[in-house]
Design brief:
Low-confidence stretches: none
Number of helices: 9
Largest sheet: 7 strands, mixed
Structural class: alpha/beta
Strand order of the largest sheet: 1-7-6-2-5-3-4
Shape: globular
Strand content: 5-15%
Mean pLDDT: 85
Oligomer: single chain
Length: 263
């Protein structure tokens, strides 16, 4: 069985549903932004987590319905650890919606800097304390993450990152960067892997054009970082990435072949 990433082909009806879904998404953002702004002002920012946990899933729910996407969360750990460093497999623009739909407790997202070019994302992102980094500039990205460690720790907040960095990476599961794992060590948080099954199959483009279908977000049990050191972190990262390869149904032979074609 081949696991090579291929472009997703959409029918005319799916393009129309996608366009309607995008319109609904931005209408929901426009509708909720004044309410969120007022809520955060009145609460002096203390309801930021409520916005992420309860309002964000509410915003994307009609978008899924419009685009014909059935979204399901499977929890293999209960309760969900908090605080923690949540990591995801990142391969589709659809990830933006499925991340918001999770409604994880007290979580903040690490997002690419360019999302701030949208004034709604800029306003909501900064009001709720999200972290924007320049992924193409590794040193600045690391500095931004380090700067936010003390804030997250002080406020007992979780954080979600994509260890692959960008959705544009070789293969189904791209190479993992050290940033999220070093951050977990600095915070003293466990790593909680989240695997999105269906995002890549439904959408491969850059702007939320998607086929209709099902997506499952599986929240896996936490991985303790208590015994992690700078000497063994590479092995721990490789072990966690291997889990993602297994969840994606990629064999060791396919992974080795993929790596050999890149070199």
């Amino acid at each position: 069985m081949s696991h090579k990433a291929v472009p997703v082909s959409l029918t005319a009806a799916e393009y129309i549903r996608s366009i309607l879904g995008i319109i609904v998404f931005f209408l929901m953002l426009l509708l909720f932004t004044p309410f969120i702004f007022l809520l955060l002002i009145i609460s002096l920012g203390r309801l930021s987590s409520f916005v992420v946990e309860s309002i964000a899933p509410l915003i994307v729910k009609p978008v899924f319905w419009t685009a014909g996407i059935r979204f399901r969360i499977e929890k293999r750990t209960d309760p969900i650890p908090c605080p923690a460093v949540f990591i995801i497999n990142h391969s589709s623009s659809l990830d933006i919606l499925t991340i918001l739909a999770l409604g994880l407790p007290r979580v903040r997202f690490v997002a690419k800097w360019q999302l701030q070019y949208n004034p709604i994302f800029f306003l909501l992102g900064h009001l709720t304390g999200q972290v924007f980094i320049r992924r193409e500039k590794s040193e600045k990205a690391v500095a931004t993450l380090k700067k936010n460690v003390s804030r997250l720790k002080r406020k007992n907040l979780s954080v979600m990152l994509a260890p692959e960095g960008s959705r544009k990476h070789p293969g189904i599961i791209g190479p993992f960067k050290k940033g999220p794992f070093r951050m977990a060590m600095d915070l003293g948080y466990p790593i909680v892997p989240v695997y999105f099954d269906g995002n890549r199959e439904l959408s491969s483009g850059g702007f939320l054009f998607t086929k209709s279908g099902s997506v499952t977000a599986t929240i896996h049990p936490p991985v303790s970082t208590d015994d992690w050191t700078l000497e063994n972190i590479d092995q721990h990262i490789a072990d966690i990435r291997q889990r993602y390869l297994e969840w994606a149904g990629i064999s060791s032979e396919e992974e080795n072949l993929q790596m050999s074609t890149q070199t």
